[in-house]
Amino acid sequence: MSDKKIHLKIITPEKIVFEGDADSVSAMGLSGSFGILPGHIPFMSALQVDTAKVSIDGKEITYSVMGGAFQFKDNEAIILTEAAECGSDIDTARAKLAKERAEAQLSNAQTQRDIKIANAAIARAMARLKAASKN
Ligand code: ATP
């Protein structure tokens, strides 16, 4: 089992962001980070708005992942998420603007809902900036 690869798909409602064979996959679950190697027992986790790392032939690629779910079984892994971008495809200027806009919204927030929306936008922008900085 250990010489096998993980067949990974990163899927959003819009498209398949990545599909291919990886040596390992790690991501941020709700109770912390986890890493999966080929041959791992079946595993499932909800995902935080953060990043996922995919290791392929010694090269590590970081994706931003906007929450969702991770599932692993029989060396098949799926990340199902609202949006995901490869770090090298991320428009960092856009993410910085989104963060500034959300911080302004947070400081003007009137309701708990406003606070929640602004914090979620900040988390998305921070995940994108983190992924962009790793590639
Ligand atoms: P913005 O305010 O800049 O639109 P957002 O957090 O509201 O950011 P989302 O709703 O999460 O954006 O994503 C909308 C679409 O835009 C998705 O397809 C996502 O992949 C893409 N996207 C968002 N921000 C970026 C970025 N900084 N670089 C590249 N693609 C991005």
Architecture overview:
This protein folds into two domains: 6-87, ATP Synthase, domain 1 (Sandwich), CATH 2.60.15.10; 91-134, Up-down Bundle (Single alpha-helices involved in coiled-coils or other helix-helix interfaces), CATH 1.20.5.440. It is 28% helix and 45% strand. Strands 1, 2, 3, 4, 5, 6, 7 and 8 form an eight-stranded mixed sheet that branches. The chain starts with 5 loop residues before the first strand and ends with a helix. Strand 6 and strand 7 (76-80) form a beta hairpin. The chain has 135 residues and is an alpha+beta fold. The protein has two helices and eight strands, in the order E-E-E-E-E-E-E-E-H-H. It binds adenosine-5'-triphosphate. Adenosine-5'-triphosphate binds at residues 14, 66, 83, 85, 90-91, 94-95, 98, 121, 124, 128.
